[in-house]
Amino acid sequence: MAALNFLCCHAAALNKTHLHCGKNDKSVVRKKVEELLLVTKKKKAAAPTLPHISLQNGNWVKLICGASFEDLVDVRNLSLVYTLAGVDCIDCAADGAVVNAANEGIDVARAILPIRRPWVMISVNDDEDLHFRKAEFDPDDCPIDCSRPCEKICPANAISLQGELGSFQPGVITERCYGCGRCLQVCPYDKIKATSYARDAAATSILLERDDVDALEIHTNGRQTDSFEELWNGLRESVKHLRLLAVSLPYIGDSTVSLMNKMHSILECDISCWNLWQLDGRPMSGDIGRGATRESIAFALRLASADDKPPGFLQLAGGTNAHTVEGLRKENLFQTRSICENLESSLVSSSNALIGGIAYGGYARKIVGRVLSRMESETGLVHIESSPEHLLMAITEALNLVGGVKSYTTSP
Ligand code: SF4
Ligand code: SF4
Q1: Are residues 326 and 258 in the same domain?
Q2: Which of 16, 236, 297, 333 counts the most CB atoms within 10 A of its CB?
């Protein structure tokens, strides 16, 4: 409860705080943060739980920056905001510069408020996977009278046909494209192609040796396990100090559990950390609406009732958004349990904790991304801590989402 108190106080203080933005006025940020700390201290609240305790409690929250999303400024700002909102893990592309950006965001957040550090996770793939692709097209090939639906539909602002987005060349801005595929579907002239890629195991191993990388996620499409085993053989020497190993998989029908067991048998000799199964219901659809979350909940229901599933926490992803918690509650799957009541049983068999938590991707990026875009257009600033007013707005959005799982709200 102490952790929840802390977050309640934190959120309430944020709501009551009215910030006046002074450009680069760091003293304003510091002052407001001191007020937050004072409120927190008065209530004798504690810091949020450690990430693995959140998994055991069933209230783990992961921010998915995107396995292919490499916009360093956005990754930094998202990591900063969601660290302050209390997420347990930040999942980012397996790229050194992106990992640096995520860690910088976390460090800046912790300099503002001494909150516990979320784990940093990097994501790789064993085969073709929607999360590991980029769209591309040649804007010179586009008919001049095209109404440019690709530009309008892109959730990542990754398409600019007239160079409106800063200094970017017209076309797809590769760093921002995370492969959702929506532009491919709307182009009336079939001009857009998607290029898949795989993260290199050797380069990933180097990243895994870093002190500031805590977790690895392997995305698999579930078609077969040969490529999964091959990737694992390339990584197994580097995973010794990891705190968490996650496998992200789609629902592949009745053979899902046997596939999970097969993958677990490949992994189990080498891992000494926590393990987690990411149930990828409907990849990259969380920002679409209420319906998008149904598939991840249906996936969770099937897995929760399977007796023969391998050990490991279960965590939802793919279509997760503001409606996911409500859906889990309706199905009696969402459980928030106090550490004292349930720690022991969770440790004995973590797989009995129905759902370890939720990962939010597109939806989490969208609600904070709106604030980031607004800040950029209103102030020209790029680092969110430089604009206290926008920082406050972004944290409030993030707290509303994270709070649904952590059982706190921003309402006083
Ligand atoms: S719509 Fe999706 S796939 Fe197309 S450019 Fe934007 S992020 Fe990439
Ligand atoms: S929708 Fe297709 S043809 Fe039209 S601008 Fe976009 S890529 Fe070009």
Answers
A1: yes
A2: 297
401 in the same domain as 325: yes
Residue 343 is assigned to a structural domain of this protein: yes
- Report pLDDT digits (tens) over 173-207: 999 999 999 999 999 999 999 999 999 999 999 99
Domain hosting 299: range is: 2-125+198-406
- AA identity, residue 259: L
The answer as to whether 411 is a domain residue is no
Q: Are residues 116 and 184 in the same domain?
A: no
- Extract the residue ranges of the chain whose pLDDT is less than 70: 1-47, 163-168, 334-353, 408-412
Residue 150 Cβ < 6 Å to ligand 2: yes
Give which of 398, 333, 411, 343 is closest to 370, Cα–Cα: 398
Q: Where are the beta strands (DSSP E) in 137-273?
A: 159-160, 171-172, 193-196, 215-219, 244-249
Of 399, 411, 337, nearest to 56 by C-alpha is 337
Q: Which residues line ligand 1 (CB under 6 A)?
A: 135, 153-154, 156, 158-159, 172, 177-183
Nearest listed ligand to the Cα of residue 162:
2
Residue 263 to residue 40: CA distance in whole angstroms = 44
The string of pLDDT tens digits covering residues 321-334 is 999 999 998 888 86
Q: Is the CB of 161 under 6 A from ligand 2?
A: yes
Between the alpha carbon of residue 6 and those of residues 86, 109, 235, the distances in Å are 10, 16, 38
